[in-house]
């Protein structure tokens, strides 16, 4: 081993340590920005180490061009994207990672003349071929699956499940078996010449169609779990590509992403009281809309039931004389960009001696930690953000709970109605509060497309309108008291 290889591995070790330290920083809003910068610096070091490693064989014009294009395409959307669109950006960036891995596997196939020209001096051929084909299948699946997730989150495609009904799972199984069969043909070298290229393309195409077929039937309510799962798959495919290329940085970074994504996916599935296979099977979540429809007032609700409308003045009076107010944020808060208005309202309440807390459901919003990020942006204290298990016992002692666009995670049907599609899913016990004020644009159902009985409860009042404007009006009424 020459001195250069010592340098490369030394830089890799530093980069890995920075990855892990940066990941630790992401556990809280106060350290998240610093942790992200540390992990990014680690990636810069890993890239430098890789460039040193390939200094004699790399095509520097293509490498520099790739870096320039990547920076040009990556930085502008990351800087300009609104917080409401952050889940879409995460899904898209994750998909790009999976697509890159698939292209790397294809490039390796071409470079080694169908894996026939592999250099076997340092490592056996079979593990390299298996790792490359695994990376091709999972990378392509992750890319196209993430594209569908992006389109659903962007509402280009409907959030409701799009499936072939009973044929969906057999079709998915055939696509998976087809991709594996084509990979076996490539791996054993059963074809030769141009035929080999057809088979590797078939692997990528079948895996890509499988990615489309898996995510299309998944409803909007499961999208946070899907994003996490696709992220884990991208990490695993990157690790496999690293094995094929003998690149330690890709192996370690991929395993970190794959392991953390897998753990998060499992935790979120448990928070919904659903298994990961059941989520992947799809068919749940009707995509009832974001609540952006026409405003509705008091009167007839769904199935002939009535809802009770309230005003900003009445809401202000209720909260002004409360001992404790709990804010339950949901996607409606993100759409309205109401986090700063909510923070201002909380300051006014706290100045009057009212204790304000924030109840965070694990799958609120459109991606893991969505609500935490929004509230942290408004400088809400991390100590005031309470996870579901920590806050649920507090609702029975709470005078007013303010629900802002959180439909599905506050639905008491999950606890009371065995026929409900979400029965058994742990929810925030909002309905146990003495009084509930729900901020919504209309009576549209949540992203899962399921009606919420909370809206018709005798202790619930509906404050219709844009969440940011409604919160600002309540704040103004509070100042006048």
Please summarize what this structure is:
The chain is an alpha/beta fold and 481 residues long.
Give the averaged pLDDT, no decimals: 84
Structural class: alpha/beta
Give the number of domains: 3
Number of E-state strands? 8
> How would the global form be characterised?
globular
User: What kind of sheet is the major sheet?
Assistant: 6 strands, parallel
User: Termini distance?
Assistant: 77 Å
Low-pLDDT stretches are 288-301
Portion of residues within helices:
55-70%
Order of helices and strands: HHHHHHHHHHEEHEHHEHEHEHEEH
Domain NADP transhydrogenase beta-like: 11-476
Function: The transhydrogenation between NADH and NADP is coupled to respiration and ATP hydrolysis and functions as a proton pump across the membrane.
Subcellular location: Cell inner membrane
Transmembrane segments: 6-26, 38-54, 60-77, 89-107, 127-151, 171-191, 197-218, 225-245, 251-269
Summarize the structure in words.
With 481 residues, the protein is an alpha/beta fold. Helix content is 58%, strand content 7%. It has three domains: 1-80; 82-281, no CATH class; 299-480, TPP-binding domain (Rossmann fold, 3-Layer(aba) Sandwich). The protein contains 17 helices and eight strands. The strands form two sheets. Strands 5-4-3-6-7-8 form a six-stranded parallel β-sheet. It has a two-stranded antiparallel ribbon with strand order 1-2. Helix 5 runs parallel beside helix 7 (194-215) and helix 8 (223-245) runs antiparallel to helix 9 (248-271). The radius of gyration is 25 Å and the shape is globular. The model is unreliable at 288-301 (pLDDT under 50).
